[in-house]
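Researcher: Good morning. I'm working through a list of sequences from a screen, and I'd like to move beyond sequence-only analysis. For each chain I'm collecting a predicted structure so we can compare shapes side by side. This is the next one on the list. No need for commentary yet; just the structure.
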Amino acid sequence: MEPVIRNVSDTARWSAVFRARETDRPDALFRDPLARRLAGERGEYIVNTMPHAGDNAWAWIMRTYLFDQVIGERIAGGADMVINLAAGLDARPYRMPLPASLRWVEIDLPELLAYKEEILASEKPACHLERIPLDLADTGARRAVFQRLREQASRALILSEGLLVYFSEEGVGSLARDLAAAGTFHWWLLDIHSPGLLRFLQSTTGQSTAQGGAPLRFGPAEGPEFFAPHGWQPREVHSVLKAAVRTNRLPPELQPFASAKESSGRQGDQPWSGICLLQIGE
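Model: Good morning. Structure tokens for this chain:
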């Protein structure tokens, strides 16, 4: 039988379902009116069929919510380009209040971007939008794209939402160095997991993603400081759990952890995840 997760692109459909369900809530933290259309029947099938697929929907929502907050702040702070690595079915250029002068670049696998363009053909983004079909594992091709984009921006913000967990530590380090070499890429917004949470995810939903050729791999012991030797300094770290506490989205079974103290450093076996804003080293 075909696996529920056929490839890494199916995780984009899975994520879009959660955004659609959040949009339906009267107290929604954000609204994505395009999410259900983008998720399609395949996305609903994944969430309804895959073991544990909906267990941590709150964390996916917190990730999107926190990304939205930081993106808005960086654009207000002078970012003139946003480069979304592995953009998936993200619809921020259509749903966020963005300046028309902003350049937004989406990079992802050709098949997924073709599907997305078909679904959104009749929609108009709020800013200038460019899509670049590219496998980010192709080092030479991505360096060529980064070189072109660096010449078109002065203060770019890089996004990699839900991407790095599928890379090895060596692969993340290589990507970090390539981004740092660009010079005009000033900020990098990403999500990161502790080793303890990575192991938990590998034993649950990670089994299905691994069957689809996308094993979960990245949960560095150093935490956000992993990126410092590769040219990036952590500037902000936002705990997903603490964000859920603030927004009253933490599930009842996790309430005992609501008062737990957290740091932005090493997390070890603790099941921790965070949203990190990195800045290019001086």
